[in-house]
């Protein structure tokens, strides 16, 4: 007996009322054996996919090497992912989701996609639907296969997989192993990814870079040391590839140091064993291990400094001081006579306009060819699941199962100790220098040069700076203040299930009434552990790394950009009872009733969710199906923990650290789901058309940063209006001494923001799914068939969002919009996939057309952000390119040749016409949630059975 996704009753018919799409392993082969990211992005039912490098969006930061499923674009958190009908643990990332990259791809026999809310059956998370990966059974012998994908400007991607199966009279065994390698693709190798400032100022251009912008300081009688003149750009700004704005400030670009695809190695090892212990009792056991490693994740050579140095190291509340005896300063004024007033005693690099290194690369990472700072990423997944199924009678089955799954994500990065940067500027840099004990720059004390003359060349453009660079910074000095941070996130899931199912003894016109009842216990746990450098308990104060001081209030940590975090643990226990009835009212009418009670305890509480699903076979050709029910999603343990995750988000044209805090008082979000559709089966023509609607209340969401910023700073009077006190205190300002809300209240002066997980506004999503298939039969001696799968989104309406009693986001419909920095993902109105397949003899050829509708950047309609008059370009132009993210049509072609029954050879051309992704006003000039940066790919593969 099989269990169809969406039911706990064994023997549920596959053509029941449930809208389930099935992708077999044979179908995946005819699609060219796509990677999980390729497959999920192409599915019309899926939008807003995490999978390609996207380090500049808070929803996908620190997820390199991972991939999500996001049905309907409702958020990956609202799609339940199963392996053989049993749960998988979500990663401990900022947006928790199941990483499908580490599932056992070599063992998958089919993928079932339930496009309907299913919390009544499965519990939390199945709001948008369920994706169930089901492994093969009954394999005999060895299967071996692999493929290689040619990608321009890359060393290519390749995979290998093998599986061995054997069975006896009462047992079945499968062992499978898979390996996937992705090669690095640098951003600078794609013309669309690195663009000029005047084409896309949002394309990785920052006002807080290096060469930077500084303020000359001199002595004014009666005042003391004070600014003389205004801000000026480093004289080497343009020479090193920067852009001098209309305000005479320097902008430099960081994306050329990044990758669009990181080098990556993934492994999966899977084993399953099924045995009939008696005629009535069977036992199953499966073990899965997966590992993913990114050895050199590329990022900017160094990050913006958003926390000023402390006074104890000679810093200023406004930024970093460079005295006139700094060798870099001396070289700058020597090479550029009159560039600063002769009376200049020092210069100030304002905190939010300066990073120690950028355009010239980082000498500590010179070995990677660009001087990009690099980090390490590793995912480890271990899962064991076992269950016993017993036929108590001819009509009754008892199933008991236990699953344990642990997922670890470890990653490293780098950030600057700001106080050490300041000491280096004063000539007291280096691990063996005692600050202020002797003359600067003497003995073990080193100077740090912050000016453009430190860099001999821009390694991205290859353009050299004319003249000598006698004052280059040493790698030893950089290593002293630009230090490694590390984070280990561990999530664990334990599930115990017990289900009793069978025939009730009641008969209806269509057959026996079947039931399923059961109970479930889930324990979710989360733990975050941070390295010493980014652990606020170890380095709580700015000057802790210099003087060991641990007394400061507030304690914001010593790192100058991303900041520090505290170790944290959290767990929750969930208890559930559920029941289901299959009612064959007549031979043509089938009704499914289901209900679930789930209790989270504590401040989260409980929820009860019923569901009714029905299918009516009107005649041999037409059928109707529909459902109505409620669903829910409980908060995962990591969102309940009193901790924060730091993300990077754009504020005032530059990235700022944004802390997202957990909330122990989160309640489950609830939803009412509706669907109705019809099915057609008229011989060669089959079709299904389904309308769906989700009405979600109390959404578990992060407070919208964009709305918080735009609301507080919409009117200068808000900064002093007591009504806005709570909202203003969510912001740290550059000159506010780390005190929330203190300092100059201006968007350009924001150094850090606090947001959090909350039960926010409503979300109503609706649309239509269409599947059409036609079998043309015998054509020229072969078989021809074709089909279209499409999803049309009618609405994705989000309710207002309130922060600290202030409405910061109006309700809006997100369909057809990019939804930048809102509580929604990008949701194109149309996504379509059409194919035509021809089989003759040993050949099978398929052509596939993928279409993604155009969608708008909502900021263009508001005249904000990238689409406001640009003050940095002479004439203040409004740059309209990217206001509409153009529709994308790509063509794929796959050819399979079967060498008898045992061996196949395939050639696949993906994106045959080599289309670039559509322009979006984002850092990489495209939308990584939707588009593909690789261009044309040619994949050759083989598969053999022994």
Question: What is the 3D shape?
Answer: globular
Point out poorly predicted stretches.
none
Q: Give the strand content.
A: over 45%
Largest sheet data: 22 strands, antiparallel, barrel
Distance separating the two termini: 28 Å
Q: Assign the structural class, choosing from mainly alpha, mainly beta, alpha/beta, alpha+beta, or little secondary structure.
A: mainly beta
Number of strands: 47
Number of helices: 11
Helicity range:
under 10%
**How large, in whole angstroms, is the Cα Rg?**
30 Å
Mean pLDDT: 93
Oligomer: single chain
Summarize the SSE layout with pairings.
Elements: E1 20-24, H1 25-30, H2 36-42, E2 79-83, E3 86-87, E4 108-114, H3 119-122, E5 129-135, E6 141-151, E7 157-167, E8 171-182, E9 185-186, E10 205-206, E11 213-220, E12 224-227, E13 232-233, E14 243-244, E15 250-253, E16 259-261, E17 264-276, E18 281-299, E19 319-323, H4 327-335, E20 346-350, E21 373-393, E22 396-416, H5 418-425, H6 475-481, E23 482-508, E24 511-530, H7 544-547, E25 568-584, E26 589-599, E27 606-617, E28 622-633, H8 637-640, E29 644-651, E30 654-661, E31 669-682, E32 685-697, E33 700-702, H9 705-712, H10 725-728, E34 731-733, E35 750-759, E36 763-779, E37 782-798, E38 801-803, E39 806-809, E40 812-813, E41 830-840, E42 843-852, E43 855-856, H11 858-862, E44 884-885, E45 888-899, E46 903-910, E47 937-945
Parallel strand pairs: 2-5, 30-35
Antiparallel strand pairs: 1-4, 2-3, 4-5, 6-7, 6-47, 7-8, 8-17, 9-16, 10-15, 11-12, 11-13, 11-20, 14-15, 17-18, 18-21, 19-20, 21-22, 22-23, 23-24, 24-25, 25-26, 26-27, 27-28, 28-31, 29-30, 31-32, 32-36, 33-35, 34-35, 36-37, 37-40, 37-41, 38-39, 41-42, 42-45, 43-44, 45-46, 46-47
């Amino acid at each position: 007996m099989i269990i169809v996704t969406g039911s706990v009753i064994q023997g549920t018919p596959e053509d029941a009322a449930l809208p389930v799409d099935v992708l077999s392993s044979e179908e995946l082969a005819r699609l060219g054996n796509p990677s999980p990211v390729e497959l999920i992005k192409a599915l019309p039912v899926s939008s807003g996919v995490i999978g390609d490098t996207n380090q500049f969006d808070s929803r996908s930061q620190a997820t390199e090497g991972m991939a999500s499923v996001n049905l309907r674009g409702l958020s990956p958190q609202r799609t339940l992912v199963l392996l053989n009908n049993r749960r998988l643990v979500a990663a401990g990332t900022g947006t928790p989701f199941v990483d499908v990259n580490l599932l056992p791809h070599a063992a998958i026999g089919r993928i079932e996609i339930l496009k309907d809310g299913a919390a009544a059956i499965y519990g939390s998370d199945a709001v948008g639907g369920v994706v169930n990966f089901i492994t093969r059974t009954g394999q005999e012998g060895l299967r071996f296969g692999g493929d290689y994908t040619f990608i321009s400007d890359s060393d290519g991607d390749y995979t290998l997989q093998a599986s061995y199966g054997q069975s006896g009279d009462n047992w079945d065994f499968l062992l499978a192993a898979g390996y996937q390698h992705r090669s690095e693709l640098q951003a600078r190798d794609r013309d669309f990814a690195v663009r000029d400032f005047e084409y896309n100022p949002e394309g990785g251009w920052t006002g807080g870079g290096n060469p930077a912008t500084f303020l000359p300081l001199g002595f004014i009688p009666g005042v003391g040391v004070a600014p003389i003149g205004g801000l000026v750009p480093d004289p080497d700004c343009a020479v090193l590839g920067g852009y001098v704005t209309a305000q005479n400030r320097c902008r430099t670009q960081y994306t050329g140091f990044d990758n669009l695809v990181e080098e990556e190695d993934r492994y999966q090892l899977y084993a399953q064993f099924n045995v009939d212990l008696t005629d009535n009792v069977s036992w199953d056991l499966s073990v899965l291990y997966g590992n993913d490693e990114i050895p050199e994740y590329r990022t900017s050579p160094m990050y913006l400094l958003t926390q000023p140095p402390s006074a104890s190291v000679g810093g200023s509340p406004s930024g970093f001081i460079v005295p006139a005896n700094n060798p870099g300063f001396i070289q700058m004024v020597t090479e550029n006579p009159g560039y600063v007033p002769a009376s200049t005693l020092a210069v100030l690099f304002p905190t939010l306009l300066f990073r120690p290194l950028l355009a010239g690369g980082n000498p500590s990472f010179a070995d990677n060819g660009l001087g990009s700072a690099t980090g390490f990423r590793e995912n480890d997944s271990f899962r064991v699941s076992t269950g016993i199924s017993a036929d108590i009678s001819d009509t009754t089955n008892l199933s008991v199962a236990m699953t344990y799954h642990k997922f670890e994500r470890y990653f490293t990065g780098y950030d600057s100790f700001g106080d050490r940067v300041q000491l280096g500027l004063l000539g007291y840099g280096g691990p063996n220098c005692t600050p202020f004990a002797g003359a600067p720059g003497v003995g073990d004390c080193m100077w740090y040069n912050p000016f453009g003359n430190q860099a001999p060349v821009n390694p991205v453009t290859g353009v050299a700076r004319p003249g000598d660079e006698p004052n280059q910074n040493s790698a030893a000095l950089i290593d002293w203040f630009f230090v490694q941070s590390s984070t280990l996130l561990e999530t664990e899931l334990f599930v115990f299930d017990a289900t009793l199912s069978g025939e009730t003894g009641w008969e209806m016109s269509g057959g026996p009434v079947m039931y399923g009842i059961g109970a479930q216990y889930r324990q979710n746990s989360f733990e975050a552990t941070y390295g010493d450098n980014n652990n606020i308990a170890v380095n709580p104060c700015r000057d802790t790394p210099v003087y060991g001081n641990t007394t400061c209030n507030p304690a914001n940590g010593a790192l100058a950009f991303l900041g520090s975090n505290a170790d944290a643990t959290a767990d929750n226990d969930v208890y559930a009872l559920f029941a289901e009835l299959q009612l064959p009212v007549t031979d043509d009418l089938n009704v499914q009733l289901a209900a679930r009670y789930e209790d989270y305890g504590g401040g989260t509480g409980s929820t009860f969710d019923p569901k009714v699903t029905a299918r009516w076979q009107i005649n041999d050709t037409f059928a109707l199906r529909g459902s109505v029910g409620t669903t829910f999603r409980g908060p995962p343990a990591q969102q309940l923990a009193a901790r924060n995750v730091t993300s990077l988000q754009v504020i005032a044209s530059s990235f700022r650290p944004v802390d997202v805090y957990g909330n122990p008082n989160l309640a489950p979000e609830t939803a009412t789901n509706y669907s109705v559709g019809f099915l057609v089966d008229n011989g060669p023509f089959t079709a299904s058309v389904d309308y769906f609607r989700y009405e979600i209340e109390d959404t578990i969401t992060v407070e919208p940063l964009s709305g918080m910023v735009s609301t507080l700073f919409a009117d200068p009077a808000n900064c002093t209006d007591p009504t806005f006190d709570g909202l203003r205190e969510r912001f740290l300002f550059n000159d506010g001494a780390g005190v929330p809300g203190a300092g100059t209240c201006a968007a350009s002066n924001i150094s850090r923001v606090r947001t959090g997980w909350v039960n926010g506004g409503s979300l109503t999503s609706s649309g239509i799914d269409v599947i059409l298939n036609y079998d043309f039969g015998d054509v020229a001696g072969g078989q021809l068939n074709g089909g279209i799968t499409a999803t049309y989104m009618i609405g994705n309406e989000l309710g207002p969002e309130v922060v600290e009693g202030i409405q910061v986001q109006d309700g809006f419909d997100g369909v057809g919009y990019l939804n930048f920095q809102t509580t929604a993902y990008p949701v194109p109105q149309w996504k379509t996939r059409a194919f035509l397949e021809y089989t003759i003899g040993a050949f099978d050829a398929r052509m596939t057309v993928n279409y993604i509708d155009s969608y708008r950047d909502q900021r263009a309609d508001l005249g904000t952000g990238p689409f406001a008059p640009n003050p940095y370009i002479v004439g203040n132009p409004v740059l309209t390119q990217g206001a509409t993210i153009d529709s994308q049509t790509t063509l794929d072609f796959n050819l399979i040749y079967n060498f008898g029954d045992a061996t196949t050879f395939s050639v696949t051309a993906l994106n045959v016409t080599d289309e670039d992704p559509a322009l979006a006003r984002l850092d990489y000039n495209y939308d990584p949630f939707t588009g593909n940066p690789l261009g044309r790919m040619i994949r050759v593969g083989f598969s053999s059975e022994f």
